[in-house]
Amino acid sequence: MIRKCPTHSYFRGEVCHCGETGSLMLNDEQTERMGRFISGALRHFPDDLGLAMNQHGWVDVDVLCDAMISRYRWANKERLFSMIESDEKGRYQLHGKKIRARYGHSVDIDLDYPENILPEVYYGASREEVDILLEKGIRPIRQRYVHLSTSAEKAIQVAKIHTDDPVLIAVNAEEAQNDGIDILDATEHIVLADEIPPQYLSLVED
Ligand SMILES: [Zn+2]
For the whole model, what pTM was predicted? Predict the structure, then answer.
């Protein structure tokens, strides 16, 4: 659930870190439903909702709210903000009257993030796919971008959602970027690229 502390604003769970319980914004079911709606709207089907997404993935927050409220009578703008501002993964970005997803798009957009400065980034693969990735490179599947992690630990964590026994691939980001491949910072933990050709990949032995 998402609640609002009078001092520290929105938080997830029952008690703020200061000990206040505050007031309820969204119960668990509402959090889940709104989360699924916002993710779909900002990553996968903005056109179906008439959101007029621009090339950098931004839509008008009020237009999004209207589409959301027409589906969920309990929804409102403050509840939307409570979800976005308490999101631990930083999935969404608010800027003035605009909102966008930071990553996870399947729609064809062109995100304008700063360039990654880490020399190496990481990708967690399953045992079954690792050979083909090392041979052919990493390409997005049903997504606009390849999603890479800023640390080995995060890459393994992400891969474990899909496989029990992930294998770690290191990406020589510095060299790739020197060769003109864009690798962009989406969040503290996630960087995006159109694709990573195989010459920049190496298997990390455990
Ligand atoms: Zn508090």
Answer: 0.92
